[in-house]
Amino acid sequence: MKNFKKAAFVLAVLLLLAGCKKVPSKAATKAGVNFGAAITIGDALNQEQIKLITENFNTVVAENNMKWENIHPKKTFYNFGDMDTIADMAVSNGMKVRGHTFIWYQQNAPYVSSIKSDDELKAHLEEHITKVMEHYKGKIYEYDVANEIFEEDGSFRKSFWYNRFGEEIYEFAFEVAHKADPDAILILNDYNNENAGDAKSDAQYKFVKKMVEKGVPINGIGLQLHLQENLPFSKDAIRKNVQRYGELGLKVSFTEVDVRVKTPATPEAVKHQQEIFCDLLDIALTEPNVDTFVFWGVSDAHTWVPGTFPGYGDPLPIDKDNKPKEAMKAMVKMF
Ligand code: 9MR
């Protein structure tokens, strides 16, 4: 009887594991990866989309709903409704949520730049970060505290925030965020910052190292990884970059992954896109300081790419008909 019980238990575990392997979101969770997608409010309200998202991903981020102009459109009015809907959908389905983003040069509410006093503007930034993070305490595990603060040549982007306060404003934002939710993982996020050796990437590393040495509460950096299939890709340079942050004791999150292809896509391009996704996932699975891998969209049916790069599209591992590409199946195998 004892042996029978043991055999039944082992069989149950094996069946469970086999089941997990087939469902991408479960396989990712088992592998310890926050495997996610950027979603819209429309996604969070649509049963078919929710099914697609929860089957494939265990993590979400709002593509636009947490940006300043949306969540805080008037000085004294916070519009938490849509972000609440997204966060509640995720949490009720056992998913994790990323927060995107506080300090950015785009999508600020128009009133923000009309605040003329520096002291008042700084206090208002503090209020914004604190209110949002306190509201989502326990629901959002990681935030892009600042986004896209460097130019391609490695100088600081001459953004509205930088022009008013200089680089000190970024450290201030991390201090405020840490005070608001000491458990949240705080990230500095950017694009074209993935390869060690590039001017922008090296400038970010130097700045972050200085922050760590000064004791600023930063927990890691975000590689957006908006890539293009027919441009050079160096797995080694990305891994080297990830490792140097690991040596500083920092995490690296893959925050907005997509690999655009020339449309209509050739089978060769789609195959190469798959190789790039798998190379990125291999880094995530083998480097101990990477545990977040989020795509910038759910499927090729909705993506920012063609609007910004005419002639390019189809950048995700789920196609326009919401069917997984071979890339998705290959990644699930890797989990
Ligand atoms: O995908 C987002 C798109 O819907 C918005 O119109 C756009 C506004 O600039 O932002 C896009 O998301 C960006 C993200 O917030 C930051 N990294 C680059 C993303 C693509 O532009």
- Percentage of residues in strands: 15-25%
Cofactors, ions and other ligands in the entry: ligand 9MR
Q: Largest sheet, if any?
A: 8 strands, parallel, barrel
Task: Note poorly predicted spans.
Answer: none
The helix/strand class is alpha/beta
Enumerate how many helices there are, as a single number.
14
Mean pLDDT over the residues: 95
Query: Looking across the biggest beta sheet, what order are the strands in?
Result: 1-2-3-4-5-6-8-9
Protein described:
With 335 residues, the protein is α/β, with parallel strands linked by helices. Helices cover 47% and strands 17% of the residues. It has 14 helices and ten strands. The chain has an eight-stranded parallel β-barrel, surrounded by six helices. Strand 3 (96-103), helix 7 (118-135) and strand 4 form a beta-alpha-beta unit. The mean pLDDT is 95. Ligand 9MR is lined by residues 63-64, 106-107, 147, 191, 224, 256, 304.
Write the layout of secondary structure elements.
Layout: H1 2-22, H2 24-30, E1 34-39, H3 41-44, H4 47-56, E2 59-62, H5 68-71, H6 81-92, E3 96-103, H7 118-135, E4 140-147, H8 160-165, H9 168-180, E5 185-190, H10 199-214, E6 220-223, E7 226-228, H11 235-247, E8 251-262, H12 267-286, E9 292-295, H13 305-308, E10 312-313, H14 326-334
Parallel strand pairs: 1-2, 1-9, 2-3, 3-4, 4-5, 5-6, 6-8, 7-8, 8-9
Antiparallel strand pairs: 8-10
Helix pairs in contact: 7-9, 12-14
The structure holds ligand 9MR.
The site of ligand 9MR has 9 residues, from loops.
